[in-house]
Description:
The structure holds three protein chains of three kinds.
Chain A: H1 46-57, H2 80-86, H3 89-92, H4 104-121, E1 125-127, H5 133-150, E2 158-162, H6 168-175, E3 179-183, H7 193-199, E4 204-210, H8 222-231, E5 235-239, E6 259-263, H9 264-267, E7 280-284, E8 296-300, E9 303-307, H10 321-357, E10 373-376, H11 385-394, E11 401-402, E12 411-414, H12 422-441, H13 444-447, H14 460-465, H15 471-476
Parallel strand pairs in A: 2-3, 2-4, 4-5, 5-6
Antiparallel strand pairs in A: 1-7, 6-7, 8-9, 10-12, 11-12
Chain B: E1 9-10, E2 15-20, E3 23-28, H1 30-36, E4 39-44, E5 50-51, E6 56-62, E7 66-70, E8 75-80, H2 82-86, H3 90-93, E9 101-105, H4 117-123
Antiparallel strand pairs in B: 1-2, 2-3, 3-9, 4-6, 5-8, 6-7, 8-9
Chain C: H1 9-18, H2 51-62, E1 69-70, H3 83-89, H4 92-95, H5 107-124, E2 128-129, H6 136-151, E3 155-159, H7 164-177, E4 180-184, E5 197-203, H8 215-224, E6 228-233, H9 244-247, E7 251-255, E8 271-275, E9 288-292, E10 298-302, H10 309-312, H11 325-363, E11 367-369, E12 378-383, H12 387-396, E13 399-400, E14 403-406, E15 409-413, H13 420-432
Parallel strand pairs in C: 1-13, 3-4, 3-5, 5-6, 6-7
Antiparallel strand pairs in C: 2-8, 7-8, 9-10, 11-12, 12-15, 14-15
Helix pairs in contact in C: 3-11, 5-11, 6-7, 11-13
Amino acid sequence: MYDKLVYELSKNTKVAYSLPKSLIKDYALPKELTRELPLDLPEISELDCVRHYTNLSLKNFGVDQGFYPLGSCTMKYNPKINEEIASLASFKNIHPLQSEESVQGLMQIYYETSQMLASLTGMSEFTFNPFAGAHGELTGLMIMKQYHLSRGDLKRTKVIVPDSAHGTNPASSALCGFEVVTVESNPDGTVDVNKLKSLLDDTIAGIMMTNPNTLGIFEKDVLEISKLLHDNGSLLYYDGANLNAILGVAKPALMGFDIMHINLHKTFSTPHGGGGPGSGAVGVVEELVDLLPNPRIAYEDGKYKFKSTSPLRVSNFYGNSNVVIKAWCYILTLGKENISNVAKYAVLNANYVKESLKDDYKLPITNICKHEVVFDGLISEKASTLDVAKRLLDYGYHPPTIYFPLLFHQALMIEPTENESKETLDEFINCLHKIAKEAIEDPNILLDAPHSTILKRIDDVRAARFPILTYKDYLANKDQF
Amino acid sequence: MFKVLENLKYSKTHEWVSVSDGVGTVGITDFAQHSLGTIVYVEGYEPGEEVSQGGECGAVESVKAASDIMAPVSGEVLEVNEEVLNNPELLNDDPYTNWILKIKLSDEDELNALLDAKDYEKEQK
Amino acid sequence: MFKYFPHTLEDEKEMLKKVNLKELDDLFSDVDPSVKIKDPNELNLPLSHSEIELRRKAKKIANKNKELICFAGGGSYDCYTPSVINTLTSRQEFLTSYTPYQAEISQGTLAYIFEYQSLICELTGMDVSNASNYDGATAAMETMLMCINQTRKNNIIIANDFSPSVKDVVKTLANMHGINLIEADINNIDEYLNNDLAGLLLANPNYYGEIKDYTSLISKVHTSSKALVSMYVDPSTLSLLKTPREMGADIACGEAQTLGIPMSFGGPYLGFISTLSKYVRKLPGRIVGMTKDKEGKRAFVLTLQAREQHIRREKANSNICSNQSLMALHATIYASLLGKQGLKEVAKTAYNNMRYLTEKLEETKKFKLLNKNPFFKEALFETSFDVSKFLSYMESKDILAGIKVDDNKILVCATEMRTLEEMNEYVKLVEAYDVR
Lengths: 481, 125, 436
C-alpha cells in the first residue's frame, strides 16, 4: 500500500517547476520584515508530485466509481460537460473587480441561474454569494433578522428549530445571534403542530424547516404551520438540503416559505470535491429582495449590473463562480421537460429500497418516504448500524449515513439519487440482505469489518487525545508510529 | 446502576459538589462520564473567573460527544485540577476523586437548590 | 429516455409495483396539490439542451467576458497555475467524493488535508491549522469568533486598513452576533486596550499592499489585555516575510488564492486559519489528525469533532460543516511543485515587479505613490487624472489597470505573472495618456 506524505519524498535541491528568468533588477526586502524561521517545504520532481497525488487519489472513493447512497448528501452523478464548460479560460481568467462591461457573460450566467431557480422554487431572486449550505443558512437568517430590525420589531430574538434538524440549523441560528427554541416531533418525525403553537409569541423571528425533513418525510401540515407563523408575524426558512425530493414537483414558496437556500452541490449536480467548493444559493420572496447580501446582479436596459441594496455582506466577492456555471449547465441540460423527473425517480428509488429491505431492517416510519429512507438498524440486532456500514465497505459500497437523524439510535439513512438504475439498486439490496444474514450466522464478520480496505478500523480516541495535526507533530512523535 | 456518593450534592445537569470551609469542589458524576464515553478532553474556567449557578464553568469532550460543565454553585474559581486536564481519562476511571474545579462559594444558600444523593439517584431513571 | 435517468419503462413499472403504486405521481400524494407545479411547461426554463447546443451557447456567453492583462489585486491576484495541478485535481476520486467521514475509503482526501495543514503551519509559523475555510473574508470573520469564545469578552478591534469587503463581512456578522466591533486606526488604539478586549484583527499586507512589523504592537496588546491577535496575511508572501508567529500573533488567517488558484471571478478561493496549539479547540471547521488503525498502520481521520455543529448544535464554535477541500488540494500541490525555492522565487518576482513598476510610474509624474511603508505586490497611487476614465482607456488596450479607490486614487498590482514588456507597455500608455 502506498503510504507516503509528500514531505517524505523530499530531497534537497530537487525542483518541480520552471519560471521565466527575471529581467529586472533585484530589490532588497527590508531586513526587519524578513522571515527568519526556517521554511521546510517539499523538494521533489514533477513526476514525484504527479505519482504522489495520483496514488493518494486511489485511496479515495468517488461517485464515478460506485454507488454512494449517503443520506442527506445527494451524491448524484456530476456531469462531465459541466466541468468542461466551467473551465473555459474566459470564465477562469477573470478578475472579480473588472468593469461590468468586461464580465457580461459571467453576470448573465448568474442572472439566468437566479431566474431559473426562482421559477423552480417560487422565490423571487437568488444570491450565489454564500459558499455552502451552512453559509446559506447563516445568510438567510441574517435576512430574517434584518427584516424584523428594519421594521423596528426588536423583540424577535428566537428561532424555532425542529429536534430532527441538521446540527447546522441551531448552529447557524446561534451564530446569527438568535436564541434557539426546539420543537419536538411527532412519532412519524413531522413537526408537532400543537407543540409548535405553544411556542409562538412575539419573540419568535421565524422557523427553520427542512421539507421533506431529515427523515425523508414530507411535512403534511406545512400549510397550517406557515399560516400559524405568518399570523404570528414570523418568517419561514426553507433548508434546501432535501430539495432534490421535490425538484420540479412542488415549490417551497407555495408552501409559505419566505427564505431558502439550495445546495447547488447536491440538487444541481456539482461535485462535492471532498468537502467543497459548494454553493449555498439563497432565495427570497419579493418583499425581501432588497435584503439579499451585496452585491446583487440585475438586468437593466439590456445590460447586467451590480447593485447593492442591503446592509449585509457575506463573502469577499460573489461566491464560487464555477459552481454556479455548472448548475446553469445542469438546468439547461435537463430543460423543463426533464426536470420534474429528477424528484420522481429519486423518490421512486428511495421507496423501492425501503420496500425491499424492511424484512431485514427496522423501518420506524412506514409511510411513503421522499428521496431518502431511514432504517433503525438490523431487526436481528446482532450487530450495530456501524458494523453494517463497515461491512458495506468490503462489498465496494460507500456506506449510507449512520446515526443521523438522532431520533433513531441505530439510524441508517439511504439516499439513492435519480441517477441510479434498478440493477444498481437490486445489487445493493441483495448485499444488505446478505449482510443481515451474516449478522445472524456469523456476527464477527460484521464486528471486525472492514476486511478488504487498505486500513482496518481507525483509532479515533487516540486521534482526539493525542492530536497529531501536522507533519512536524508527526516528526516529534515518530517513535509512536 | 451508576455510582452515587452519599455525602455529595448534585445538579440535574450531572455535576457534583462537596463543600468545606466555604469552598466547593466540583466534578462530573459517574452517570455523566458513562454517557460521554471515553473522555479525551477537559477544560475549566481559569482561577479568578466568576461563575454562577447553572452557568458554564468548563467542558468535557469524548470523541463523539461534548458537554458543558455547569457550575453547581456561584462564586470565584480558585483552582483547576491540572492533573485531570492533562489526563482526561481519569474522569472515566473515577469521577468522584478526580475533581475538576474548586469554587469559592458566594452564597451557601444555593446548596439548597441542589439534589441529595437519593434524589439524584431518582433523577437518573 | 434521458441520459441522466437510467429507468426503462419496464423498470419503472416493476418498481412501482414493488412500492404498491400505480404511477410516479402517486409518490407525491402526501404533497398538497396547492403547492405543486401543475405543468412543468409553466416553468420559466429553456427546453433541454443537447451537449452540442449547450457547448455552443456557453462559448458564446463566455466570449462576452474579456480576459485582460491584470494589474489589479485587492484580494484577487493573477498567479501562476502549473499544469500538473488541474490534471490532478480533476481526478474523479478527488472531485466526486464527499467530505471524508468514512476514513477507510477517504485516506486520499484525509492525507492531503493533513499535508495542507502542515503547509499552512509551515508558512505562517503556527502550530495548528484547520482543513480550510470558504474564503479569506469568512476566515477573518471566524477568527473574530475565536477571540470571543476564547476570552469570553465582547470587544473586537479591526484595523481600518483591511480590504473594504473583508471588513464588511466581519461587520455584518458582528452586528448580527452582537459583538462590539471597533474599527480603528492601528496607531490609535490605546483607549481600547483593557480587560474587555477580546481580539485585535490586523491585515499584513494591508489593503494597500503595505507590510509592517507588528511585533511591538502585539506585545503591547498582550500585556495590557487578555485579547488574542489575529493577523490576516497573504501566504504567498510568507516564504520571505516575517511570519505572524514571529511577530507574536495568536492566530494567522487569510486568503490563499495566491497559491496558484485562478482568479475565477472571485471564487472558488481558499480561506485558512491557523493558530497556537493551546487554542486548537477554539478552531472552527474540520481538522484532520494522524492516528493508527487497529493493526497499527498510520492512518488519518477527522478529529476533535466535539467542537463542531453536528455534536454541539447551537453551542458549536461555528456552523461550518465543510471546507474548500479541492482548493486546499490545489494549494497543496502548488506548494509541493514550487517547494521552498520556488515559493521564494515567485514571491521575490512579485515584489521586484511592483517595485520596478512603481519607480517607472512615478517617473511619469502622473502617478504619486501614497504608501508610507514598504509594500509587497500592490500599492496605492494618487493620479493626476480621473481614475474611472483611465481604467476604461486601459481596458480598451486590453489592460486591467487597477482598482479605483476614489476619483484620483488607484490601487495597482504587479504579480509574478507580469512581464517586463507588459509593465513597460503600461507605463508607455500612462505617458501617452491625454489627461484632458
